[in-house]
User: Fold these one by one.
Assistant:
Number 1:
Amino acid sequence: MMNLLRIELFKIYRQRKTYYALAAVFVLEAFIMVSAYFQGREFLNVLLENLRETFEFRGELLNANLIIYLVLNSFWFHIPLILMIVVSGFLTSEYKDRTVEATLLQPVSKFSFILSKYLAALVFTLFILLVLVASTFALAYGMFGKGDLVVFMDGLSFFQTAESLERLLLAFLAGSLTMVFYATVSLTLAVLLQEATITWIVAALFLIGTTLLLRLDFDSDAMESFFFPKLVDSWQYFFYPEIPYGVIWKKQAVLLLYTLIAGGIGVRIFQKRDIT
Amino acid sequence: MLTGFFFLTAGLFAQQVDPGLNRLIERLDSVTRFEARIQMEVDISFVTMPAKVAYVVYEKGGPVQITSEDFVMIPKRGLDLTLQELFRYPFMTLNLGVVDLNGKKCEQIKVIPTTDDADYSIATLWLDPGAVQILKSQISTKKNGVFDIRYGYAGPKELLPSEIRVELEVSGIKIPLRFLGKDARIDRDKQKEQPQEKGAIIIELSEYQITRL
């Protein structure tokens, strides 16, 4: 099993699309930082316009923590999209090149093969996130400097630098599970659909649907607790003035269960299907 | 004749300033410099902000300077502890007599600017005539709404307050459409209305260093 995983990771290391994914992450980061540099102040001015009538402000809100928060918000759509496209390609490219058959002609069980794919997808996802976090923090603190973080969550919340850093790191950590969920779903879609373009389209539709359903208010506790689109936002809860740890743990636990189920479905289908 | 006119107008102006207020102005005017540590807490329904620490420095004739390592929101009125902004332009006063303020007898005085240069239209002051301290002021500004300011002192002989509560009017915030965040839904009708609500800033002053004439 470990050998298979090593082979999968080596394949990822040698594949061009891995570097496209990294490049996409850096481009996204750069885009957010450049647009924040040029438009961030205007954006803050609009946000604080009414308060400016009665207050004078001292201190810089366009700082590293706000930039990191904006990058973190790419967890809504951009990062999952990049991950889903690349991760599903781990399997669809093997179907296309017919290397699945070649591999399974070796003394390798279907279960070990597909499980190594899921584990490689997990390692890849965590690696991309680690690169994202490290580069975002280094660039943001290097270019914009520290300062209070302002976010809009049922009103304006201001967090001091140390607290902002802690909340941002926790949010990235919680968001990692959401990204792993999307990566797992995309690999399961690859198992089901096999063809790259169709898998990408369905994966993108899944992501769009999830994002839209997240915004819908179902007025039901059960839906809020167990409907999967409602579980992908727990990282945002770290920006409420009082962090609702209970809600976050519950959402994370259910999302972890759904991730395992999605992965389990993919493994089961792959095992049952004839490889021709 | 010109000299006579000057004395006449100067006399009229002097009569327009309440003697109790004059005592306060003279007392505050003796401050040439002060610096203090301030701790500010925001009490506005839609703003959550931890208590912030800043330092205030005042040099006579200059503006109040505030510095902080953090982001701070400073009310546009309230930290003018020597009231120099209020009395910067010519004004007249009207004493409304003795009133009760939280169980304390004090003089209520209206301050009305007599030129258009002042950035307020009317101010009401509540003075403790015995301690010659200002206990409350209500300033109706021309552009920034009404500021209700209460002053607390460490003792009756203190010149400058140790606690200030500034109540002010604030409008709801505008959310830029591009702002990303959970629950950042925009109710356009509410956005247009922007109803005003009362908010407050509680300022504690300590570590005073006051230089007097």
Number 2:
Amino acid sequence: MNTSLRKSVFVGIAGLSLAGSAAGCAPGQASSPQATSAAPSAAAGAASYKDGTYSADGNYVSPNGNETVGVELTLAGGAVTGVKITPHPTNPNTRKFQGEFAGGIQSQIVGKKLDEIKVSKVAGSSLTSGGFNQAVEKIKSEARA
Amino acid sequence: MPHPGWTDFGFDGIGTRWEISTPAPLSGAHRRRLLDTVADYDAAWSRFRPDSLIAGAARQPGRYELPAEAAALGPLYETLYRLSGGAMTPLIGGSLEQLGYDANYSLRPGGPPLPAPPWDEVLHWQGTVLTTRAPVVIDVGAAGKGQLADMLSGVLRDGGVDEHFIDASGDLLNAGSAPVDVGLEHPYDRTRAIGVVSLGAGALCASAANRRAWGDGLHHVLDGTTGAPVRTVVASWAMAASAMTADALATALFFVDGSRLQQEFDCSWLAVHSDGHAEYSADFEGVLFA
């Protein structure tokens, strides 16, 4: 049985988080369930969810208009068996060709596990995964049996 | 720690975790001087403390005499205010409070986004003296952490500790003789890095839109002309000789093209956008994983 729920929700920053999760696990390919760290928590509380494929969109307004990403979770037997994140950028390269500068452009960032690379220091600001978790909560409430 | 055999001195200050690494353990006197410097900075600049110097300006207009470091912050903010067309401003505190990032951390929006007041209308910043014409919530958060890192580095140098590495929760200052390999944290996954850069003498600071996000699209990088959060750049890194400059430029990259910043500052930069693409200056060439 496959139900498909297409919902447009205003999740703001969630859209960003979702896009990033996609970038984190090789964009362009469907992410494997274990590649998305938040997925297992969606399965917590198991058996109380109906099997099916659920999707929710995250929208946010960029200075150049709306941008949207979609997250699709497949649930089977109360567990998440698939996660697919689809960026649908309406303004894919908004700033890509703006002006010239010495340096370069990379079309997609690629994440590598920190324990696979040898560094003693990390520069960045740690993740607040609230956005992704919000979308997952939304899907959980939709999917509750 | 950045090098094998070095020791760390960790403490909390100005709302963040600090780790200072040195080849040999710091003496009690050194530690005390570092902590005093942190306490003094907080007492002057924290907008979360009703007794801070800067908190007075939020209550009533007037003339406020600030410590020596104000003389460096003012011109830096003025330059970035100009380059960003008013988007990056120390007067952003009121907008942050409006969106819930207030002294009580209510994290509840108090209403629609509130633009910051125009600099010329309310603030005259001359050296260490701020003269205000209206109550203003000053927030130097975009450069303050970096500036404090520079000041702590100065304290160590004055105390004869030339070799050290300061990690202010991801904003880094290397005052050691050897470069340090630094991972660039993935903006959406703290267990991953998107590249590794070698940090020689100098600072590397980062800013990300997802840090301290507390609601639908509400995060702490605000555009001063609208008072609303910025959405296109999601993570940025800047390298410069001083941590104050690197810290401020990391935020400025949310509003201003890196190439434009390079015309005014001796810096290197990397910006990741919401669609996952990255733009960078020559020094970041080959740094990102492909």
